[in-house]
Amino acid sequence: MTRVSREVSEYIERLSENKKAIVIALRKIILSVDPSLNESLKWKQPVYSKEVDICYLFPAGNHVNLGFYKGTELNDPKKILEGTGKTMRHIKIRDLEDIDKEYFWELVSDAISKDR
């Protein structure tokens, strides 16, 4: 069963309408991949974890980042992951239309598999 955080729900409610819609859609995808994910608010952003942190949502500027802690290890044939850090990568989502549900589901699934 998914461990949805009331603190994260309250955080989402305070976002602007566009960011709120994006975060809700991404949250739904993430939690649909694995119902045993933990959802919490860390570093002022929603974070999804099992044994380790797997991915996060970060509203910033005019977009929302869907970020992956082990992003450099993910299978990304569409080459949409961005970033220059040692391991982390993210996708910038500016509108609901930018969300590729199936592809994002695959990325989250791959990220969870890296936790094993």
Task: Give a summary of the structure in a few sentences.
The chain has helices at 6-13, 17-33, 101-113, and strands at 38-42, 45-49, 53-60, 63-68, 89-93. By secondary structure, the protein is an alpha+beta fold.
Q: List SSEs in N-to-C order.
A: HHEEEEEH
Radius of gyration: 13 Å
The largest beta-sheet arranges its strands as 1-2-3-4-5
Distance between the termini: 19 Å
Number of strands: 5
Mean pLDDT level = 93
Which range best describes the helical content: under 10%, 10-25%, 25-40%, 40-55%, 55-70% or over 70%? Answer: 25-40%
Strand content: 25-35%
Low-confidence stretches: none
Total of helices: 3
> What profile does the largest beta sheet have?
5 strands, antiparallel
Structural class: alpha+beta
Morphology call: globular
